Amino acid sequence: MKLLGPKSISTGLSYLFLLLFILFAVHTIFELFAFGIAYYNWTNSAHLFSDFIYVGNTIDYAFPQHGDYTYFRFKYPFTDQQMLTGIFSKNNFIFHTFQNIFFTLFFAFAYKIFKKLSNEKIFTEFVIKDLKKFAIINLLYAPLYFLIWIFIFKANLETTMLLTSFAFLFLGIIMYFITALFKKGYQLQSENDLTI
């Protein structure tokens, strides 16, 4: 089976990335909704959607409880499956929102790129623009991820933080090189089309 073009591996990957984009988009929207409802419930002593959104001083889940904190637990609707559990704070909201938005964009651009690689002509201005945007979001994610852990969570420097930041920084740099290669391919293809 061929890698690029119609009915290729890139076509199958585009469908996989579309599915992941949809799942992450729905997950992100639900998580934002759950944080909003949890905040409303906490500030108004309400119990909206209490079957799957909990916020309180204690939690009946295997989660280390330290000091006087407010905890939250979100379950996927109509299931008993845990979605997210932790300390209910602005920092957790910022971090999880940041993560979800990034991965939603990540899979959206991956889908767009692989969908365009499924066409007959793969060297197009649209692919180059999407590759560049994909490189930028990866390059931005790396330092932002690191800074959130250091400055918002006041975490000590850990190997996992450095590895995660490095991995996305490396991916962003590789994507810039691939963008440059596609730009060169597009120029050669345009020159070839003009000579025919």
UniProtKB/TrEMBL annotation:
Matching entries from InterPro entries are given as: DUF2975
- Identify the domain of life: Bacteria
What keywords appear on the UniProt entry?
A: Membrane, Transmembrane, Transmembrane helix
- One Pfam match: DUF2975
**Which residue ranges run through the membrane?**
12-40, 93-114, 135-155, 161-182
Q: What is this protein called?
A: DUF2975 domain-containing protein
Q: Which organism is it from?
A: Chryseobacterium terrae
